[in-house]
Amino acid sequence: MGLQLKRAIAVVMRTKPYVLYRALIYGALCLCVIGYLGLLAIIGLVFGAGAFWALLVVSVGLVAMLGVVGFVGEYIFYRLRAGHIALITEIIAEGQLPTGISQMKWARGRVLHYFGSVSPLPQVLWLVRAIVRAANRTLFDSAAALPVPGIECGTKFSQHLVDFSQGYVEEALIAYVFKSKEDNLFAAAQAGLVAYCQSWKTVLGNAVMLTLWSYCFVLLATVLFLIPLGIVAWILPAEWTIFKFTLFATGVFLGFAAKWSLYDPVASASTILAFLEESDLTTPEPEWEPKLESACEAFGELKRKAEDQAAGSKTKKPSKRPRTKRPPAVRL
Q1: What is the Cα–Cα distance from 316 to 310, expressed in whole angstroms?
Q2: Whole-prediction pTM value?
């Protein structure tokens, strides 16, 4: 099926306001990190390089110990990336977005509409993450999906590459939940996981290739940022090594920020396109459910949550909201 990058870029271009919003959020995060590094550099200039390195090591240790990076990443997913997934899915499934409302407001409303609040989203994502990882490691020969010849030998590198690519697969599964328009989120995720099992090689192969391209994108973006920053570092006095290091770290961080803002939406759209098309072409095979349940206890928990939500919905009065007709899907 291929990466369909042309279609993916076309979809993302239709969400330009949200892409700008996404870039601003990551830009603000980047400024905070750069500002903190600058503060440490000033302290190092005044009190010596030892103070700079000591504070930097302590800061990194605290960030790792408190799990700040994971917390920030999850928070950004719930508050930012999930909304973009909803926009991309709506364009792919329905061919257009509602008019007369900002994309940011619509995306947040869509996330709240299906998840009620952001609290069920972490539950769904955590279960999906655990199940996909277990399936990739036990049910599938994941190395067979790698597009790079010579590493299909089950090495740690190939497994790490598959693990790093899982984020795009997770986003595709969240897109499946949005596309299903199913009130029972856990049941929708359950169906999506079965569909992934039936098309894992295509979807995972695309995700791995996009991950490899992301490394190239980060390298290129970092080099582009380091050129002007390197000129500034070259002009600075030789003894200002701390500031030169800060400029280098800034260039590297800006390279990753460019990936998060510009590359990841396209990679996400590409994976979503592949998965949704594959799921439309396959008929669910129930035999995958016991296989998933035996591979990962989290799938059993997902099924129980789906049953609990279904039982809870039966006790509620049916909604009397009028149903609105949706425009037919338009292929880009």
Answers
A1: 10
A2: 0.84
